[in-house]
Write the structure tokens for this entry.
Amino acid sequence: MAGFTGLGAEQQHRATYEYDIDHPECFASEDNGATPVEVVLVGLAGCLTAGIASVAQFRGIQLRSVTATIEGQMNVLGILGADPDIRNGFETITVRFAIDADATREELEALIAQAQKRSAVFDVVANPTKILVELA
Amino acid sequence: MAGFTGLGAEQQHRATYEYDIDHPECFASEDNGATPVEVVLVGLAGCLTAGIASVAQFRGIQLRSVTATIEGQMNVLGILGADPDIRNGFETITVRFAIDADATREELEALIAQAQKRSAVFDVVANPTKILVELA
């Protein structure tokens, strides 16, 4: 990931960020990285966590620590194409936040709800997105 | 990312894979990593590329190189919440593959189509997924 276009100009990251992706040994690969679906979960957890930090700052809530634990349930028969009624992707994803902050439980729940509402990756995963895959 | 449950047992990756995520300086952050939405694109490109390699092997197509170029179109007014009619996520995503292989253009297009059909991340992004976000 090197750059993007926005705010009226071509933008560059400070550096080109590289990520290794692989599949585990039980899928006949070498396990030299997280799997692609796990990388999507990393993006979702990162987006929601950044949102929590941002909304907390806006609301004057002092955060001491935020930890996201994320799980996706997937039926391997879908991936393998063994059962056409089972989808390829996640059946459900659960993100659980442990937050240490100067705030009530109600304030923290409202904080999480707002971060979810504003999260781009939550939107991408929760809703359908049009994807065009083509040969150059 | 450390492990997963599957094939009747708890599975562990060979190592725990860690990824840094951040937002760019024009979003008032420090740009110490790709953004969460870019990480999702990395997962999509990785999943489709792995699928192409896998289907090519199955079909006896010798690949010399596969390069994915991926772009997501996003209206920043959606992220900022400035216009409720504009979604937070990608409007469209385009993945373009340059492939050097011993195969005809028709064979390569069929290869890409099958990789798309079997891709878990394509399924996750193209279709709605239920996500539960909660406070521990």
